[in-house]
Design a protein that fits this description.
Helices cover 44% and strands 11% of the residues. The chain is an alpha/beta fold and 360 residues long. The protein has 3 domains: 35 residues, no CATH class; 115 residues, no CATH class; 168 residues, Rossmann fold, CATH 3.40.50.11350. Helix 4 crosses helix 7, helix 7 crosses helix 12 and helix 8 packs across helix 11. It is globular.
């Protein structure tokens, strides 16, 4: 009778699975196996077809979950660093999960990454599932660029910034449409020598979400800017910000010496502008285009004042990718928020759901 019950329990897959988890949790062999699974040295190799047998094709997707544009780019650079280290052929495909996607084709493609950038290899995404050797990433592999550490630093150290710049230069080449758009805007704004770049992040940073930098008040940025202007005699200021309050404050103080983009959507609320809906055509695509423009404009400046964010970090490694560096960098840091991770997920999920309903 006991054996029959034992057999029935084994046939119950859920019960058998969890009972074995409990049974082997304390065993060293089991712990070592779990630690190794999905690690940087673990590769999932599949053979769906016969194309490009000489290549190990590394198929990199997007994280989704309403990530900001440069948060997505930073994760991508981690995976590209892994591909670079192990001589894999990267194929990047950002699908409909990401917030920058449109229903219609942009630049003739439905791959959100290629809305803005050239393909990272001659192999097309549509060919991936006909290739002889295809490698699918594990999350830990993106930590190759940080030496395997999980700790997320919004700013990074000098060594990391140089690595990010090197990988960005190699793989993230702007497509013709994006390149023309950014170059045209840079010429119109005349970001000449002795320009001080300022990046101020407001909106959702005000919520103090865990692992997100706390918002720095616009008045603190103003005080820092005045000191720097008086000491180093910059001729003009370029301001990139999602904060209406910050823009109004700097306009009132610096007038015609202040340069900014008028068509950027800004807010005084605590919802990230990348999560807000709009009636304008191709709104989500334009959000990505505009934040790229901000980063390249900041990279064109001589010096930088910024808080900790993926955009300001992006501007720095873009500048480094061009073989340049800032003459001076000032970072205003109030630390990170401590609101629970669960609260953060609820916030992003609720905002995304609300804005998606508006979109429909």
């Amino acid at each position: 009778m006991f054996e029959s019950w034992k057999t029935k329990l084994r046939e119950n897959k859920s019960f058998y699975y969890y009972s074995n988890l409990i049974r082997y949790t304390g065993k060293k062999e089991f712990k070592d196996f779990v630690r190794g699974f999905g690690g940087m040295d673990t590769v999932l190799l599949q053979h769906p077809g016969n194309l490009y047998p000489e290549n190990l094709v590394y198929c990199i997707g997007n994280v989704g979950y309403n990530y900001g544009f440069f948060a997505e780019i930073r994760d991508l650079l981690g995976y590209l660093s892994y591909a670079d280290k192990f001589c894999l052929t990267p194929v990047v495909y950002w699908d409909k999960q990401g917030y920058y996607t449109e229903r219609e084709l942009i630049c003739g493609v439905d791959n959100v990454f290629e809305y803005y950038f050239c393909p990272t290899s001659p192999i097309k995404y549509e060919e991936v599932f006909h290739c002889r050797n295809v490698v699918f990433p594990f999350p830990r592999q993106r930590l190759t660029i940080t030496g395997g550490e999980w700790k997320y630093d919004y700013w990074g150290n000098e060594e990391l910034r140089k690595k990010l710049g090197m990988i960005y230069k190699k793989y993230c080449k702007l497509n013709i449409v994006t390149c023309s758009y950014i170059e045209t805007n840079l010429k119109e704004k005349r970001l000449r020598e002795r320009t001080l770049g300022i990046h101020i992040r407001g909106t959702d940073f005000k919520r103090g979400l865990r692992n997100h930098p706390l918002a720095v008040d616009a008045k603190e940025f103003m005080a820092c800017t005045k000191k720097v202007i008086n000491k180093y005699d910059y001729k003009q200021i370029f301001l990139a910000t999602d904060s209406l309050e910050a823009l109004k404050l700097f306009q009132a103080e610096f007038g015609e010496h202040l340069i900014f983009y008028e068509d950027v959507r800004r807010s005084d609320g605590d919802v990230g502008v990348h999560l807000l809906e709009s009636d304008r055509k191709n709104h989500h695509y334009k959000l990505g285009l505009e934040v790229l423009r901000d980063a390249y404009s900041l990279a064109a400046c001589d010096a930088l004042i910024a808080g900790k964010s993926n955009v300001s970090l992006g501007a720095w490694y873009i500048k480094l990718s061009k073989g340049e560096d800032y003459t001076k960098v000032m970072i205003l840091d109030r630390g990170s928020g401590n609101a629970s991770g669960r609260e953060g997920k609820r916030y992003f999920a609720s905002v995304a759901d609300r804005e998606e309903k508006k979109r429909k």
